[in-house]
Amino acid sequence: MTGFSGASPPIRIAEMGLGDLPEVLEIEKASHVEPWDERFFREEFERPHSRLLVALKQATEVAGYICFWMVADEVQIFNLAVAPGERRRGVGRSLLLEALKIACRNKARLALLEVRRGNTAARRLYESVGFRPAGIRPGYYGVGREAAVLMELEMDRAWRSRWFAGSDPDPTEGVSWSLRHP
């Protein structure tokens, strides 16, 4: 489990369970122009390479979530969202860094994601942890045919030292998040 004290009350990162879906779906609808439906999330629970984490406040209230895939030596971030009332408090950064730490422990060296060109808040978050634009996909998002910015992050030794100093993301160590089952 990872704690975050930038928001009040403290945030805890945990594995997403099926019981979290009602709150996750509310955050999803409030956060995305083209939100995933429950079926998409349920499919992610079944994929062996998919990981879903939630940020919890007061032990059970979902403040945000992230969905990512571990594929070979890469991590692909597919969905990250924070409840409107919890934004700009470090919840998204905590989720992102926890996903990247798990990826490093699983020997990932490259992180990839796509973000709407117009989502400047998300782009700033990603850039603040080292992601850099790597390309554009014109008309990628259906509604409004908005372009996607492809972003990538090389998680080399220097990057890992900067972000995980004192908590080495060595793949031989145990995970730092709590398991919760549906």
Automatic annotation (TrEMBL):
Pfam families: Acetyltransf_1 (PF00583). The keyword Acyltransferase applies. It comes from the Bacteria. Keywords: Acyltransferase, Cytoplasm, Transferase. PROSITE patterns: GNAT. Residues 11-156 form the N-acetyltransferase domain. GO terms for molecular function: N-acetyltransferase activity. Belongs to the acetyltransferase family. RimI subfamily. This is Ribosomal-protein-alanine N-acetyltransferase.
